[in-house]
Amino acid sequence: xxxxxxxxxxxPGTVVYSGEKKTEKVSFTLIEYSEKEFIExxxxxxxxxxxxxxxxxxxxxxxxxxxxxxxxxxxxxxFNIHTLTLEDIANTDQRPKxxxxxxxxxxxxxxxxxxxxxxxxxxxxLLLDNNTVLSFQEVHGGDAFDIIRTxxxxxxxxxxxxxxxxxxxxxxxxxxxxxxxxLEKIGDRIEVLEEELVQDPSKETMRFLHRMKRxxxxxxxxxxxxxxxxxxxxxxxxxxxxxxxxxxxxxxxxHTIRVIDxxxxxxxxxxxxMDVYLSSVSNRMNEIMKVLTIITTIFIPLSFIAGVYGMNFxxxxxxxxxxxxxxxxxxxxxxxxxxxxxxxxxxxx
Amino acid sequence: xxxxxxxxxxxPGTVVYSGEKKTEKVSFTLIEYSEKEFIExxxxxxxxxxxxxxxxxxxxxxxxxxxxxxxxxxxxxxFNIHTLTLEDIANTDQRPKxxxxxxxxxxxxxxxxxxxxxxxxxxxxLLLDNNTVLSFQEVHGGDAFDIIRTxxxxxxxxxxxxxxxxxxxxxxxxxxxxxxxxLEKIGDRIEVLEEELVQDPSKETMRFLHRMKRxxxxxxxxxxxxxxxxxxxxxxxxxxxxxxxxxxxxxxxxHTIRVIDxxxxxxxxxxxxMDVYLSSVSNRMNEIMKVLTIITTIFIPLSFIAGVYGMNFxxxxxxxxxxxxxxxxxxxxxxxxxxxxxxxxxxxx
Amino acid sequence: xxxxxxxxxxxPGTVVYSGEKKTEKVSFTLIEYSEKEFIExxxxxxxxxxxxxxxxxxxxxxxxxxxxxxxxxxxxxxFNIHTLTLEDIANTDQRPKxxxxxxxxxxxxxxxxxxxxxxxxxxxxLLLDNNTVLSFQEVHGGDAFDIIRTxxxxxxxxxxxxxxxxxxxxxxxxxxxxxxxxLEKIGDRIEVLEEELVQDPSKETMRFLHRMKRxxxxxxxxxxxxxxxxxxxxxxxxxxxxxxxxxxxxxxxxHTIRVIDxxxxxxxxxxxxMDVYLSSVSNRMNEIMKVLTIITTIFIPLSFIAGVYGMNFxxxxxxxxxxxxxxxxxxxxxxxxxxxxxxxxxxxx
Amino acid sequence: xxxxxxxxxxxPGTVVYSGEKKTEKVSFTLIEYSEKEFIExxxxxxxxxxxxxxxxxxxxxxxxxxxxxxxxxxxxxxFNIHTLTLEDIANTDQRPKxxxxxxxxxxxxxxxxxxxxxxxxxxxxLLLDNNTVLSFQEVHGGDAFDIIRTxxxxxxxxxxxxxxxxxxxxxxxxxxxxxxxxLEKIGDRIEVLEEELVQDPSKETMRFLHRMKRxxxxxxxxxxxxxxxxxxxxxxxxxxxxxxxxxxxxxxxxHTIRVIDxxxxxxxxxxxxMDVYLSSVSNRMNEIMKVLTIITTIFIPLSFIAGVYGMNFxxxxxxxxxxxxxxxxxxxxxxxxxxxxxxxxxxxx
Amino acid sequence: xxxxxxxxxxxPGTVVYSGEKKTEKVSFTLIEYSEKEFIExxxxxxxxxxxxxxxxxxxxxxxxxxxxxxxxxxxxxxFNIHTLTLEDIANTDQRPKxxxxxxxxxxxxxxxxxxxxxxxxxxxxLLLDNNTVLSFQEVHGGDAFDIIRTxxxxxxxxxxxxxxxxxxxxxxxxxxxxxxxxLEKIGDRIEVLEEELVQDPSKETMRFLHRMKRxxxxxxxxxxxxxxxxxxxxxxxxxxxxxxxxxxxxxxxxHTIRVIDxxxxxxxxxxxxMDVYLSSVSNRMNEIMKVLTIITTIFIPLSFIAGVYGMNFxxxxxxxxxxxxxxxxxxxxxxxxxxxxxxxxxxxx
Lengths: 349, 349, 349, 349, 349
Prior knowledge:
Oligomer: homopentamer
Distance between the termini of chain A: 51 Å
Number of helices of chain A: 8
Strand content of chain A: 5-15%
CATH superfamily of the largest domain in chain A: CorA soluble domain-like
Largest interface: A-B, 66 and 65 residues
Strand order of the largest sheet of chain A: 2-1-3-7-6-5-4
């Protein structure tokens, strides 16, 4: 998660891929639709992809793989995209942001997935003036966008009736929906952890707690800037975003606030759990100390007494009395009981 | 309390109920009133409910149950409500918010109740342009609104003389009043807890403290957005809210600030109590250690001395002196007293 | 200090007294003055009080006792005061605030006193358009206002030369001056506590510290809103406040900032003292442990050696050597000294 | 450092000295200068001082001692200064602030010095419209201002060429420069403390740390408002401040930000050091416990074994075997070595 | 890192070098370029350097060494730079800032390097109206700027085609790129530290953690003001910055936000690690205590029993029974096993 330095020292606007090295071929899907028509094609070659565009339909070109920087530059030239934007698309360490250029709007965000730990993949969505949405993903993020593809294919919902701006909104909405899925998983884990904390906290609990706190730090870093992103998207004065779509963006803004709220709530919960853990460690220490103290304070005086009558003095009168031994036991038992009574009163037993 | 994912992946504006599954029939109450008249009816069927509306009276339609999403859509069509609003009404995980549409204002908030722990139920209040208030509750939240019904029936107070905006204000006011009730209960519990903390803190105290801190986190999440909600309601430029009502909304805003203030105060108090708990655990540890140390340091040297004269050396002159045993007791008692004196001086006894 | 729920569920604008129940008769004092004249009267009856008002003089009506809600309503009608204001006057749980109505300005604040703990009493000051100041107190808050009465009687200072707005300012100024008195008392107590903390912290110190932290929480709650109150008072566009008085209000605003600054400083100090307390508890634990460890590690090996030569083996050659016993003492003393030397080097002694 | 209550209850605008009581005579220095001329005189009497003023020269009247309130009032009348300003000059508990009146600008700030602890002295600087600067100090703060006097006398730098506003700036600049001197001293002390913390932290370290934290609290209280003071001075619309001087004030503003930055950095450092101290106390505890545990767990089992063969049973076969004693030593040494090995593996040794 | 006081007491605008004393000769490099031409020269003498300037080319004069204050004043006179700016250039304790003067823009920032600890060197970049960039460094910061020199020489990228404002941007960009390099190094170290913390935390871990926290404090101090600097640079109304360059500055602003984000994330991570460290210390203490308690509570009762039968009473019947010894062993083993069982149930073993 450390910042990438591959671009340090390069001229600004240099398109450099900063993620893990990959050699797979980049693939394109082109979806074109209007209220009545729907066309979907997959290509291995970008030029091919551009041949068949129909001007009157909404176009969504999805690029899976951003490690082929030459290709990104080619796309950039074709659609007249600023090199700074191209640099941002290829650099996987971007902070989520929304930017407005003369001829297009670009949103860069993190698409999160969560197996054993949270993984972030960069996604760039460009809304171009000629009815076109471009999306760039690191890997094929099928799950999140498949739902939208299905909606487009079947024509259910209003998406086919609306423009490219609504499609861009739908894509971002799908990303934010994924956050909810991840937060629910984390919420479940927090509940399990809390149960564990009350029942039987171990060193593992602590480490798990720490790992979750760290995850929340990264999640927070990905989620907070989304608020500004969507807010700027909603409030942009660009004509690319229609008024009807702005209403949906306002709704999406509320969703983002909810995500942030939940992240903050989880952070608070995890902090509280840390306190509970630490106090339970202290309590356990107290328990251990109590046992030690009770055993020690009962037996040490008794051992001393036994030691006294183990001495070999020629003149030690008690040794020769007939009932000494029995008297001694009585004394020792009294001392022990006295101690026990004292501990009871102090509520240590 | 985790965010709900049932709606993730669905087209925006899809009305999905996200609370616990229910099968009960949704019920409606319709109240119509003017300064002179008052009509109250309960229906099982929405169409029936709409038959008898009188245009010149203020109408309050209360819907108990939001799990019947088809019905909500039907109501939405009838009153020309945006699908995003309908989605918000049915989705029980909404964050409290106020939204302004062309033809109506909508406030979504949490109605809290508190038996053993805080429970939140979603409530949506819509102020429609034709003198109508719509309210949607998860379950029949009789308690809070019964007071307003009684006021409407009897005609006491100014509510019958004023419009639908004042009614909407009254409903929100009833919700905020409930917060005070809950805060008072929590305040009492904090006092009990503080007493316990000073007297005799146990592991249970800690857990209870933690549970209350968690409750405050959730309470805070429900209460903070109310401030913005009411502020926006007061400052809306919509003509649906009259100037006289705005004065009452300003007052309600102050109430909300008071609620938030109290929540924050309780959070501070609970944090302080956590510190006291931890320091009392440390103090108790010190006490235990002191007892252990005192007993050990007194008896261990004595045991050693007894051990010395339990040795079986052929040549151990002291064993054969006549008064050795008595001298030894004198020495041992002096050592013990010396130790006690030392501990007194160190204030350990 | 828990929020009061007596008003929950009542129609807004209902005047309900929310403090402790009282039955004493409410009393009025009327002061009328101009630069040349000064009249002061005490009444048991409000109507009587209003008979003799002289229109050209500044009037200050002070009401001691706000539990008689009927009377407050009567006054409200007489001076044309909004029911929401009347509700605020009688409800002792108000947050300090300044409100502007068409015909009057109202400031509600806490008058603090401090015997064994801080006590807050509500005070409402109304500046009415016809040269009149109304003040409502829970009990007779003589001390704070007597100074102003004396100034009015004697005509010293500029108060007799100025209008009702200056009088209102003087009353609030007297309240803020009281905060300084209380802060000085608390400052003295903090110094004593700090002394105690360095010298000899006990469990009592901790509890006292906690109590003071709690007091600061309540003090803060009362003091912070004063800033906004006075700021709003100074910046109001109402013609009731003259320009010369605004200069004094600006000065009062600075005083309030100073009060808040001091409260925050005290909070910081108390937090720091908590840390010192906790670290001193830890240090004390270390001391105790050191004593235990030193005694134990010196005597346990010695006891073991004595134990060895207390064994009854038939064949244990050392027992029969002539100087064994003396050699043994030499060995034991060497071990003890070795240990002491080791502890010295580790700086435990 | 507690707030002063001597003025509580007095009419606003009453000039009361709130510092320690003093009886020394107040002294005046008058400096008059233009680019070519320079006159410096010391007076014991204010009227005398005013006799010789030359209208075309810049005048700086410095008053050492503010306990003679009558005199302050006299000066106030002479220069037409508002009583609230006079009150602020004499009240040594002022918060640093900048205020603008019709005919003058006033800056009140703290002049800090640092011997064993930080001491604050109040300073008021008034910029009057007729080319005059008035400065009021508690005691003769020679050090800080002597530099400026020297610059005036020698005519070095630009100060003689510029107006009274530049002189006022120079005086404040001298005060801020003093903050840097103090911060450097504190920085040195923090470095020493850090060294100590790593080498050999003692209870004294903790107390010193606490004292420094407290000092930072007071320093912060004095320094933060300076930012606003200078910002307001720079941005005032008053014609008394010329454009060229504003540039210098902007620079001074940067200096103040640097002072605040450093104070905040020191606070962070001290907090971090507190953590280090606490963890080093815990570590030391662990060390002590380890020694105790190692000694105890090695010798207690051995002592037990010795105890067994010290029993006096008639029938205890091992006692009569020839090599029992040697076998026993072998066993005991094995146990001891086993324990040592176990501790090594656990990294306790 | 303490603030420098060498300038305290000097007239404002005095150019004083505040870094370590140096005697090396200051060196100049002059680069002149247009889209077609490129000239690079190194000088030991400033006057020489100015002889050959060509008005139509972009000029970059880089000064390595700022300790020669006379020279800085000479440069200042030549280019008509305000003395306050010259003072800032020479004073190495400046806070990063951007300032706008009538004829030039100045950016002062920290150039960071990181060997064993972070080192900051001051850098001032001036954009002058006649196509000129001046840069002042403490030492020859070749690494960071060499890349830009190479780009200028080879004419790669757009830098040769653009003006002096773009060059100034490039220089600042190179500085921010260095921050990423340092952050990556720190990120690596944090990962190592985290590994260590989970595996085997020692006192060294704590000290290292503390050192890194301190480094983050200083890093933060250098980085935060960069945001404002670049923001002001981007938004300046000066005609020196062209619109195309502003786009690049906006991008640079995003980079700075990313740097700040990462710094804050690291701070959070380090705080979390501190908690983990402290809890692992507590846990280790618990472990040690457990071992002590187990050994003690098993053997102390057994020792007591052995002690009892080591007593020398004449009448102690058990001593004379034939199987006492064997019975006793059975009893002792049972007690030991009972204890072990008890500890197992309590999960201490």
